[in-house]
Amino acid sequence: MRQSQVLIPTLKEVPTDAEAVSHQLMLRAGFIRQIAAGVYAYLPLALRVIQNVERIVREEMDKIDAVESLMPAILPAELWQESGRYQTYGDNLFKLQDRHQRDFILGPTHEETMTYLVKNVLNSYKMMPKVLYQIQTKYRDEDRPRYGLLRGREFIMYDGYSFTANSDDLDKIFDQMEQAYHNIFDRCGLDYRVILGDSGDMGGNSSREFSAIADIGEDTIVYSDMSDYAANLEMATSIIADNPTEKLAPLQEVAAPGVNTIEALVQHLQVAPQKIIKNVAFMADDKPVLALIRGDYDINEVKLKNLLEVNELRPATDAEISEKFQSSPGFIGPVHLSVKLPIIADLSVQNLCNATTGGNHKDQQVQNANIDRDYQVDQFADIRTVKAGEISPDDKGTLQFTRGIEIGHVFKLGTKYSQSFQAEFLDEAGRPQPIIMGCYGIGISRLLSAIVEQHNDEKGMIWPLEVAPYQAHIVIVNTKKAEQTSLAKTVEQQLIKEGFSVLVDDRKQRPGVKFAESDLLGIPVRIVIGKKAADNIVEVKLRNQSEAIEVAQNDLVDTINILLKNYIS
User: What sequence ranges are listed for the domain Aminoacyl-transfer RNA synthetases class-II family profile (predicted)?
Assistant: First the structure.
């Protein structure tokens, strides 16, 4: 391919509104251009990378007998109303009406559509298992699209769905998908971790999240420094030391005017935060719930929401604390609580002796509060946010934090959607049963940003070989020299015959400009054809190396193959 014929609008300066390195480099290298906030055009080089990623995905899906299909992007709103997600997705949905005022949405994902599709089709256990997938543009009306392709309002996604008659088949497909994801991300040259993830609005009771390590990542990854344990911050847990036992002291009410925070309480009563019960009032689907946690920890709202199995969880307002909890904001606590409501306590509170906590009256706290004697707890559970340095839950090493970009997710959905849509099959005994489902997603366009975040230097991008827009970049130093253009054509045909994709810089530009832009584009192999073209000598350099070597044209392919053994995958 002649570079002079490809649209590659490079920029010399870093765009001021681009924060992420990947966003800056893909704009500078002419891979993408913004059309609207969170909406990008994929120019020729970016599209080639996307097509390479899609090829890898399709090859790995073929290995596990997953079959490609394509669903509509415009979906009737009633499908999402039937599942309940029309409300829970809220403003993130792009909503529209047709000329007959019928409500539609632009699909952000396709669980409902796929379930509706197989309803009354997969009506016997003999027709399962089945795995369908698609690669399609999705739409989510993000409030703050940012970081280029990392968080957009229009993006390309792989989404797969499995349909099984029993849990054993679901487990088998789930494991196959997880391995396929490993293969895909390995072939894309990514450094990633597989972590315990939150299923969120997707539903289901088991999930694995694939996260690419990157400082710009919006997810916090918690991992053990001595084992394979990893989870996102919303799901991570740890081993904490037991609370020390001591003789129970009498309950005591103390005046604490204006002392309504943990920090103020520590100073006012000279008590350690580990001896304080922090009380947080929540509204769970508009019902009051009181959550307790030790004063040196914070409530993890995702864990609490999952535990309560509610659609919405939010902190109660001061007015709600007064009305629904019959308490005083800043002084709420489990002791002397005048209304009956669910009390959930973190494991850090279990066996906590002689604790300080809220007294449920303005400017009043209580000391020496003890479980069972002074207050009751309905349920103990892990509802805390872990801290770096704590002991890993497998008792191997300590927890460390890093940042990551979510690039893939696999879910065991169970029967959440099949029950909503009455998607049933007849089992071996002829009894109707809901189809058991799994869901699998990969952010295809997001992968471009993740790869560039990990593979770049001060000169530009460094694409891994399998996903690079072109694998070899032939740079003609002087296009007016016939011997150089002739040799370039010979080398191009030679490389194409060996299976390389080739871009030839045939532009009438200064060599310095060509070399700088070649580095910016990040193509793995650069072949410079210059003054020694008459002797059939070329210069070869890998993008991730600083030194170039001279090679005879006849030895070029063998030399490249040897050099690529030291290149990124």
Answer: 38-464
Non-local (6+) Cβ contacts of 226 within 8 A are 392, 396, 397, 398
Nearest to 11 by CA among 22, 20, 24, 21: 24
Cα separation, 269 vs 253, whole angstroms: 12
pLDDT of residue 344: 98
Asked if 345 and 379 count as a contact pair (C-beta separation under 8 A), the reply is: yes
CB neighbours of 421 closer than 8 A, spacing ≥ 6? 82, 83, 112, 115, 116, 119
Give the closest residue to 161 by CA, choosing from 444, 409, 440: 440
Where do we find the tokens 């890898």?
Answer: 56
Whole-number Å distance between alpha carbons of 332 and 350: 19
Query: What does the pLDDT look like over 206-251, one tens digit per residue?
Result: 789 999 999 999 889 999 999 999 998 988 999 988 888 899 999 9
- Give the model confidence (pLDDT) of 257-270 as tens digits: 999 899 999 999 99
* Ordered domains of the chain (ranges, CATH): 46-213+413-452 (3.30.930.10), 252-381 (3.90.960.10), 470-564 (3.40.50.800)
Question: Rounded to whole angstroms, how far apart are CA atoms 299 and 463?
Answer: 41
**What percent of the chain is modeled with pLDDT above 70?**
98
Q: State the pLDDT confidence band at 196, using cuts at 50, 70 and 90.
A: confident
Task: Tokens 């559509």: give the residue.
Answer: 113
Determine contact, residues 455/462, Cβ cutoff 8 Å.
Answer: yes
pLDDT score of 444: 98
In whole angstroms, give the CA distance from residue 187 to residue 441.
Answer: 17
Residue of 250, 267, 273 lying closest to 349 (CA atoms): 273
What is the phi/psi pair of residue 123, to 5°?
-100, 10
What percentage of the chain exceeds 90 in pLDDT? 91
Distance CA 567, CA 224 (A): 29
| Residue whose entry in the numeric block shows the structure tokens 């990008």 | 40
Contact 346, 382 (CB under 8 A): yes
Contact 318/332 with Cβ under 8 angstroms?
Answer: no
Question: Tens digit of pLDDT for each residue in 179-193?
Answer: 999 999 999 999 999
pLDDT in tens, 305-332: 999 999 899 999 999 999 999 999 999 9
pLDDT in tens, 502-558: 999 999 999 999 999 999 999 999 999 999 999 999 999 999 998 999 999 999 999
- Nearest Cα neighbor of 464 from 209, 191, 216 is 191
Cα within 13 Å of Cα(455), Cβ side: 28
Kindly tell me the burial class for residue 493, based on how many C-beta atoms sit within 10 Å of its own C-beta (0-12, 13-18, 19 or more). Answer: exposed
- 449 touches 112 (CB < 8 A): no
How many CB atoms sit inside 10 A of residue 269's CB?
Answer: 16
N-terminal to C-terminal alpha carbon distance within the chain: 24
Question: How would you class 92 by CB atoms within 10 Å of its CB: exposed for 0-12, middle for 13-18, buried for 19 or more?
Answer: middle
